[in-house]
Amino acid sequence: MNIHPAHERDGAALMDLRIEAEQWLHDAGIDQWRNAATRAPALAKWQTDIAAGRTWLVRDGGLILATITLAPPDMDFWRPSDEPEDAVYVAKLITSRAARGRGLGAQLLDWAGHRAQQQQKSWVRLDCWRSNVALQTFYVREGFEHVRTEAPAHRLSGWLGQRPASLVRHPDSRLLTG
Q: For 121-166, what is each residue's pLDDT tens digit?
């Protein structure tokens, strides 16, 4: 499968993908992203990330199967002592229910590691919701180590994880940058 940079015209489809994920999370008993009032700010941030070349898509024909954003470090969570410039930061990693069972999320994490290595960075880092234990377990299974949990009053995310950029968990199913 190939991964491509997102374009401005992809914003609405990305939001549809997020809404699908919101419903799936809700059905699984996970209260994440359910506040519809956060959709407009999320879309605006996505548009900024797209314009900066940080958001990527995996498509199957016209259908977006997954997205990932390689964001700047979120300094609500990462400290100067973490050497934030030595990492690629995964954000908005979402896979479509249509891609279920393909291991696409895991492949995107390997791809992020490859991108980090290309930039001579040592780590792939991320933060996820403090209450989403299933997602934290997925990341640990994919080689992430829990760094710490931060709990700023204005944020619901804050479980911090990292793994070496050199770690490749799925060498037989690599995404190709197209």
A: 999 999 998 888 989 999 999 999 999 999 988 887 899 999 999 9
CB 65 within 8 A of CB 104: yes
Distance CA 151, CA 120 (A): 30
Long-range contacts of 30-34 (CB under 8 A, 24+ apart): 30/129, 30/131, 30/132, 30/134, 30/135, 31/131, 32/129, 32/131, 32/132, 32/156
Q: What is the pTM of this model?
A: 0.91
The string of pLDDT tens digits covering residues 21-30 is 878 877 777 6
Residues 89 and 112 sit within 8 Å (Cβ to Cβ)? no
For the chain, strand residue ranges (E) read: 2-5, 55-60, 63-71, 87-95, 123-129, 145-149, 157-164, 176-177
